[in-house]
């Protein structure tokens, strides 16, 4: 085990904490797994391109409940005004503002656990854990306590739910573990907008596991916008299980952060389910963003698409790995993968790996991946129209990433996000 | 008392049945792998000391290595101590004396492939000299090559006759500790081919293992080394479209290609080892390390492979594009039917400036076959203006087969351009329908469609090979439809 993993294992509480028997057992399982396997290393295929050295150098320690969050510090403006808002500080639910729509229920996870809400146990226990690369999820389970539960009743539209994540700068860097559970009953809808922004100089890391259970014909739109400070870490794992005709759409925007890793996993259990994952990552400096997606088609007639665009400059490193597995019997599945990247500097690095595993019949699957530069002819065209070189390049690079924000259903939100992308767009060196 | 003495005498005089020493002239070494076995192989081949040391070093590395398990393959455990690592070619008296003694199923396949009668005998392992005068073909062939200054001989001959060349290039592309199976090959390889094309020479004919005398039984650990000096050109054909029966289950070959400035090497393979029966019993494990080194500027290495045989195929013919403006190409058709498994693809490592690579891979899965493309394209920081284009398509025929794609793309140079595209789909229903409606049988229609799907690769093969490869696909696909 690495020094960091040993330290974090030592920071784990000795007891399984309070609560019901099954919760304590779950925490125990997580702690055992973590003590045995520790954190993933580059020897794990899924972590081949991501080393955790930067977290280790920062002397990261596990946050414990003894450090209660204080009042929130100054915040960047939220991406959208409308909707019901949650403020999460240091991984804990600090406040709620606005009125939730009828059918939408939000509880802090601690509350939900003490009330033993129906379906919560099944959901929490369903998180697959067994690979040596699952160290972060094991740690998250071992400390299971803080987070939120979001529930949308059958046949209702929960509207927009915004979660604003931030952490406070301290003398030492802390690792916060949080769980978000989302349950959408049949025919329910929700737009979940997560925004990650912390004050500068912050070197904390958040380890968030989001589990979503989508009932028949449910629809979850999930937008994750991240503009953390350069020293901050963000590790997320999103597990979505989808019943018949349900739809999950993910839009990830990584504009900041030091070490960022997203694991997205959708399991299409019912026929006709649809998974649409898209994202843009814009990197400069020494930043490192690793997007890992996996879609398991277990029922017939499913559709999945991954659409990711990336720009890397400075000595940044971007990783994109997506795997679509069409299991036996998942006939008539359609799967598409697309990843395009622009590399702007000699020290930056892009690694991409779109995988297909197909065991079924009547499948249509395709993927494309490119790494290259801006089209010089297009730059010339813009310059001939009076733009200077820098403006021309910025416009073209933004347009390249805009193809992701243009996929958002709310055009206003798409506009706000593309403006934010324009502001941070890395320059060629 | 007398009786007792005579019993003792008989016992004393009795010869030790099991023998203390291994007879150096014996044909086959007992199963097992140890330093002594390697010394035994080296001694039988009368190898120089440096080569024995080289083998022993590889063996020491191999002992420290573990068999890799990352491939998308199900491999039964291999007992490396249960394999005999040296077996001399069969003498004529052990072979079938005529075609009447050969398995009729094999002959039927030859018939379908249109293999000429005299060749059938050779392929089926019938004592060659009786039916086919290979010597005369060989002689004309050799004299022409000699005129051009080309060296084309077995690896063992090269070790004896051109030790300086072998010593200089052996292991310079695939080093001893490259991977588990390559290390094993380095330690125990028995024979293979050696080709040397001198400066500025365009090899007057396509070289083929087929014409090399004694090529049929090079054994399971084959080693090939091709060196093309500056400005030279060679096309090398490996394998044969006709099914080859072989007793050895594990084949771990190593192929090394070295292309110096402006040299051009084209390496074509048709692999049709025994794939096992319809139930997946038996069949060859084909674990091969093939790598070409474009060492000089403007050099070019092109790999073309048609893989239809073997129970398990595990190989990645690769190019290291070191020289500026060098070019690497990979064209592949891999077909798996019944219970066959294949994990194959290529690696293109771009180091030199303006290097280019192209990958065209066609995978066809039928029956319960599992077919995976695994490729790496790496643009290293010095690879200015490097370019790669990859296309890998998979076709599924049937409900229980699998087609998989694992492309790794690593780019560390901002002027590099990499494009990768892949598709997986079932054989086109509308195309099939159209053919059937025109009175073409389903089987013929499928082979027509498959042939069209593979055309891009077939056109890279030398003409005779291409014709045979097409016939081979048809035979391999038998029973896949309906």
Description of the molecule:
The complex is a heterodimer of chains A (429) and B (482). Chain A is an alpha/beta fold. Chain A has a domain at 3-270. Chain A has helices spanning 3-11, 21-37, 53-57, 109-115, 120-125, 135-142, 376-384, 389-405, 411-424, and strands at 61-62, 84-89, 92-97, 104-108, 147-152, 157-166, 174-184, 189-196, 205-214, 219-226, 233-242, 247-254, 259-268, 274-283, 288-297, 303-312, 317-326, 334-343, 349-358, 364-372. In chain A, the strands form two sheets. In chain A, strands 1, 4, 5, 7, 9, 11, 13, 15, 17 and 19 form a ten-stranded mixed beta sheet that branches. The two termini of chain A are 39 Å apart. The relative contact order of chain A is 0.10. In chain B, helix 2 packs antiparallel against helix 3 (49-64), helix 3 runs antiparallel to helix 10 (180-188) and helix 8 crosses helix 9. In chain B, 47% of the residues are buried. The chains are: A alpha/beta (429), B alpha/beta (482). The interface between A and B is medium-sized, with 35 and 35 residues.
Low-confidence stretches of chain A: none
What best-fitting shape of chain B do the alpha-carbon axes yield?
globular
Q: Give the proportion of residues in helices of chain A.
A: 10-25%
Oligomer: heterodimer
Largest sheet of chain B: 8 strands, parallel
Low-confidence stretches of chain B: 14-26, 126-137, 211-218
Q: Write down the secondary-structure element order of chain A.
A: HHHEEEEHHHEEEEEEEEEEEEEEEEHHH
Got a strand count of chain B?
A: 20
Helix count from the secondary structure assignment of chain B? 13
Rg measurement of chain A, Å: 21 Å
Rg of chain B, Cα atoms, Å: 24 Å
């Amino acid at each position: 085990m690495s020094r960091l993993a040993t330290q974090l294992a030592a920071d784990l509480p000795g007891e399984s904490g309070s609560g019901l028997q099954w919760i304590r057992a779950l925490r125990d399982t997580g702690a055992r797994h973590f003590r045995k396997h520790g954190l993933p290393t580059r020897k794990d295929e899924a972590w081949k391109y991501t080393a955790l050295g930067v977290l280790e150098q920062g002397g990261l320690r596990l946050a414990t409940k003894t450090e209660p969050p204080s009042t929130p510090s100054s915040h960047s403006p939220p991406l959208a005004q409308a909707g019901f808002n949650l403020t999460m500080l240091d991984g804990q639910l600090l406040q709620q503002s606005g009125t939730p729509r009828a059918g939408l229920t939000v509880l802090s996870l601690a509350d939900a656990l003490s009330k033993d809400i129906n379906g919560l146990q099944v959901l929490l226990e369903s998180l697959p854990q067994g690979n040596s690369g699952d160290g972060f999820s094991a740690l998250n389970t071992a400390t299971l306590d803080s987070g939120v539960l979001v529930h949308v009743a059958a046949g209702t539209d929960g509207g927009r739910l915004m979660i604003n994540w931030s952490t406070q700068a301290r003398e030492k860097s802390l690792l916060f573990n949080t769980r978000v559970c989302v349950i959408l009953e049949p025919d329910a809808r929700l737009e979940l907008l997560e925004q990650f922004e912390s004050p500068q100089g912050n070197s904390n890391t958040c380890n968030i596991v989001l589990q979503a259970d989508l009932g028949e014909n449910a629809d979850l739109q999930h937008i994750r916008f991240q503009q953390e400070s350069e020293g901050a870490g963000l590790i997320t794992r999103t597990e979505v299980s989808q019943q018949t005709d349900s739809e999950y759409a993910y839009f990830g925007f990584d504009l900041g952060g030091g070490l960022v890793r997203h694991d997205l996993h959708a399991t299409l259990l019912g026929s006709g389910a649809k998974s649409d994952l898209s994202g843009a990552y814009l990197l400069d400096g020494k930043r490192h963003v690793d997007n890992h997606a996996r879609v398991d088609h277990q029922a017939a007639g499913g559709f999945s698409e991954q659409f990711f665009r990336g720009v890397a400059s400075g000595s940044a490193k971007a990783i994109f790995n997506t795997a679509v597995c069409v299991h036996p019997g998942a006939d008539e599945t359609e799967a598409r993968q697309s990843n395009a990247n622009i590399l702007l500097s000699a020290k930056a690095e892009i690694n991409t790996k779109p995988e297909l595993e197909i065991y079924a019949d009547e499948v249509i699957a395709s993927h494309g991946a490119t790494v290259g530069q801006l089209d010089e002819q297009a730059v010339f065209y813009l310059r001939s129209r009076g733009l200077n070189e820098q403006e021309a390049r910025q416009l073209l690079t933004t347009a390249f990433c805009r193809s992701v924000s243009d996929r958002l259903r709310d055009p206003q939100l798409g506009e706000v996000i593309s403006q934010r992308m324009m502001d941070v767009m890395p320059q060629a060196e | 008392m007398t009786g007792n003495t005579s019993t003792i005498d008989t016992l004393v005089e009795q010869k030790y049945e099991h023998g203390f020493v291994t007879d150096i002239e014996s044909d086959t070494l007992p199963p097992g792998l140890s330093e002594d076995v390697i010394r035994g192989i080296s001694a039988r081949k009368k190898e120089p000391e440096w080569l024995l040391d080289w083998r022993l070093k590889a063996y020491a590395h191999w002992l420290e290595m573990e068999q890799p398990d990352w491939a998308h393959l199900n491999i039964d455990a291999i007992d490396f101590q249960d394999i005999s690592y040296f077996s001399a070619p069969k003498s004529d008296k052990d072979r079938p004396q005529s075609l009447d003694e050969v398995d009729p199923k094999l002959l039927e396949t030859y018939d379908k492939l249109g293999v000429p009668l005299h060749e059938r005998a050779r392929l089926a392992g019938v004592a060659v000299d009786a039916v086919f005068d290979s010597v005369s073909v060989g002689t004309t062939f050799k004299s022409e090559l000699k005129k051009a200054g080309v060296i084309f001989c077995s690896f063992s001959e090269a070790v004896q006759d051109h030790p300086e060349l072998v010593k200089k290039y052996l292991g310079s592309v695939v080093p001893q500790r490259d991977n588990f199976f390559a290390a094993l090959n380095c330690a125990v390889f028995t024979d293979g081919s050696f080709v040397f094309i001198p400066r500025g020479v365009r090899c007057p004919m396509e070289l083929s293992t087929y014409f090399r005398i004694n090529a049929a039984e090079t054994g399971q650990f084959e080693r090939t080394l091709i060196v093309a000096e500056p400005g030279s050109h060679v096309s090398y054909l490996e394998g044969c479209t006709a099914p080859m029966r072989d007793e050895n289950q594990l084949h771990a070959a190593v192929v090394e290609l070295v292309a110096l400035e402006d040299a051009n090497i084209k390496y074509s393979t048709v692999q049709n080892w025994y794939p096992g029966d319809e139930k997946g019993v038996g069949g060859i494990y084909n674990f091969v390390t093939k790598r070409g080194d474009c060492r000089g500027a403007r050099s070019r290495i092109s790999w073309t492979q048609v893989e239809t045989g073997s129970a398990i195929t595990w190989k990645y013919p690769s190019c290291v594009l070191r020289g500026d403006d060098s070019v690497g190409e990979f064209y592949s058709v891999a077909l798996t039917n019944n219970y066959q498994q294949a994990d194959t693809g290529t690696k293109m490592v771009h180091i030199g400036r303006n290097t280019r690579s192209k990958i065209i891979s066609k995978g066809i899965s039928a029956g319960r076959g599992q077919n995976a493309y695994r490729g790496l394209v790496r643009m290293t920081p010095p690879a200015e203006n490097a370019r790669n284009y990859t296309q890998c398509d998979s076709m599924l025929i049937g409900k229980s087969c699998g087609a998989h794609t694992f492309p790794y793309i690593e780019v560390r140079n901002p002027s590099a351009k990499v494009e990768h595209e892949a598709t997986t789909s079932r054989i086109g229903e509308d195309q099939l329908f159209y053919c059937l409606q025109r009175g073409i049988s389903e089987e013929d229609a499928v082979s027509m469609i498959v042939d069209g799907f593979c055309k891009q690769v077939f056109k890279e093969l030398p003409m005779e090979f291409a014709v045979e490869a097409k016939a081979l696909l048809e035979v391999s696909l038998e029973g896949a439809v309906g």
